[in-house]
Fold each of these.
Amino acid sequence: MALSWKARRRWALFALVVALPLYIVVAVTVVTLFERPHFLLELLIYVVLGILWAFPLKKLFMGISQPDPDAPRQD
């Protein structure tokens, strides 16, 4: 079932405002559970985790900055 443009826009806003900060807190908490790794390894972990969150949400964010395609045209 495909989401409407409005629903995708709302879910994208939820993902950026609620889910992403929670993801950041979880990622930092998990990294701090381990003994302090080398600086470059820690940086690599944060870079990978910083990119990894976007792949599952890519379809959600596609086209939400465009005008609503289902809205009536104003000519």
Amino acid sequence: MKISYHGHSVVKVVTGDHTILFDPFISGNEACDLDADTIKADVILLTHAHNDHVGDTFEIAKRNNSIVVAPNELANYLAAKGLNAHPMHIGGSHEFDFGRVKFTQAFHGSSYTEEDGTVNYGGMPGGILFTAEGKTIYHVGDTALFTDLKMYGEMNDIDIAFVPIGDNFTMGPEDALVAADWIKAKITVPVHYNTFPVIEQDPDGYASKVKTGEGRALKIGEELEL
């Protein structure tokens, strides 16, 4: 399994048979090194409906006939727009041919804004536990610090966790360090920072302070193999 980070909350996972994208905010994301017009994806996993997470889902999914897995209300909205969407809800899990997906809680908002300003309710935001090839990835999503993160760490053997550190819209570095201790991942990677001025942070500084497992600030496009 190969895992790479592409700015904001964009994560790509390549298994033996599938390419999976988390929250593919590519166009308009100056930090992202991917090309929304050419990227291949069999699967798109969405933590919530905000535009900086849904991103280029429509274009990528239509071109690749990707399956899009998302919280129920968001998935229903995407399906109404013609995408192949699979709805899930917080606490639910499903075994797909590409791996197992389970949605966890996240304390945040969730709405999708159309170009004309129309705001669509996106259901509850979530985090995603994704397991394939014997490895478990936890994309925490956009969230505040909350104590059930400790429970998720105790219940799951997490190989790598992607934790937001940007502050303002999510937890900041201090709370994210507590989250890393609770989640107990072998590797903790900071995400959701430096895309906008209000969420500017020092990812290397954060990673150096992670006490449980290894903190690692991935460079854009940097790839890990699990």
Amino acid sequence: MALLHRASIVPTKLEAINAWLPQQPWALDAGEVETLGAFRFDDPAGEVGVETFLVRDAAGGVLQVPLTFRGAPLPDGERWLVTTMEHTVLGPRWVYDGCGDPAYVATLAATIADAAGEAREVVRQDDGTEVERDPSARAHGTGGAAPLADTALDVGRALGEDAVTDVDGWTLVRVGGATLGVSRHPAAAPSDPPAGVLTGHAGEATGPLLLATLTR
């Protein structure tokens, strides 16, 4: 379950994404993007927010932007830092490209391997009550692939530079004897997706998309 708070955030998540994307080799021509939807994964330790955004670029294409949100800097994570932001409930937050953050890598791998889906979203109200809401995007793993090192990654340190590469619109993360492929420009998913992939969609804004793969 992802516990959310009614709060103001500066900069907003979309502002942070728009400022960061032009520096990425897979998004040089993205222009101003708009959010189509987002889904979250559960961090088992409950420390790191893990949220993936599906956004539409200026040309009408879909980009996938996974982010992590931390209450303290990720050691050795400067390469992956997207921005810092102020959250009116949680205080300062350090925001990272998920592909460099083991918390995202572990939760993505586990979701694929376990044929699981996005986390439930529960919003804590000002009076302390909690209300569940529907995610604005959905994701589902197809199972059939062993998670990376049983997903027991060291969530305290960023992944080494040689573990993460960008190739033809995909970010490849090699760790634990396996490779996670994160599609930065997700295309339509096959009607009968194979084992070892993550598919998802942002409501009626997109059809089923192939978001990620897990291979050994």
Amino acid sequence: CTRGSRQRKDGGLYHLGRTLGRGHFAVVKLARHVNTGQLVAVKMIDKTKLDVMVEKVIQRLVQHPNVVHLYEVVNTPTTLYLIMELAEGGDLYDYILRHEGGVAEDTAKRHFAQIVRAVAYCHQLHVVHRDLKPENVVFFPQQGVVKLTDFGFSNLFKPGTMLATSCGSLAYSAPEILLGEEYDAPAVGEKWISFSLFKNLGVLKTV
């Protein structure tokens, strides 16, 4: 996906637009399929700075109604392009800013339940996300759902085996990760983060 367009392996073509987000190793841009007009999000990952094979494999593995769908992957020597469905409603971080006084408990419960289902499904596949935060929960108003995105820090785990890699976002890290200890990712890290994601940010008025 160059400044203008990018040829797909199947003959399709995307035209890149404005930047939707930017991280240490990746840029996410709005793109439009030239033939169909479909809007998508294209995550452009710098392969020279990050090993992206795990994210590529996991993103293809995880297929769930509450996980952002990966349409295809375009691989070049220096950049990996992940072409994904576009979240028209923005992310949970902006949603929180728009609802500083909190939202109705039923609404918060519905959003929370959808993310829990996505995380539980990942764990069934022995996939741990390791970066649950408001910016990685996105809204699809037309579908009436929220979805989990950005598997850049995700990994496969073996049940009963502890992980030691310290990763993710500091503000949402479990105590074990902050202390540099080994941790059971699905039992400790994800549960701690998914709970603090909603409670500590004040999404639930009554908690």
